[in-house]
Amino acid sequence: MNTLTGQISTIEVNGSLALITTRVNDVFFTAIIVETPETASYLKLGATIKVLFKETEVIIATQTPEYLSLQNKVIGQVTQVDKGVLLSKLVINTSVGDIVSIITTKAVNQLGLTKGNHVTAMIKTNEILLSE
Hints:
The chain has about 130 residues and is mostly beta strands. The chain is about 5% helix and about 55% strand. It contains 1 helix and 10 strands. It has one helix at about 105-110, and strands at about 1-15, 15-25, 25-35, 50-55, 60, 70-85, 85-95, 95-105, 120-125, 130. The strands form 2 sheets. It has a 5-stranded antiparallel beta sheet, with no helix packed on it. It has a 5-stranded antiparallel beta sheet with strand order 5-9-6-7-8. The model has no long low-confidence stretch (mean pLDDT about 95).
């Protein structure tokens, strides 16, 4: 599980849903959760919070994708590639710390991913979890 620490910068509420924006260093992550400041005391502007997401939920692009609906994008450099028969593990050094991605080995080969490549790691808003 990728775990980052940041501060809540915005909270938008509609019914029982909240769209939370958290700043981690120079990057903003958005998460949509089924909680509100009324139901979860940790949801306060400026509060320190953990941003969590599975390695299998990290999408990799070799060019900066400008026209995608994905809101959570972090640019970094591949520092490790562990190729398996079906799946491969990438470690990407970013301004928010290391992010781990597990993608198919076929995708690694198709993208020509090797140590030193610059990539964009992307995570869907609904795949991000928040924790105190």
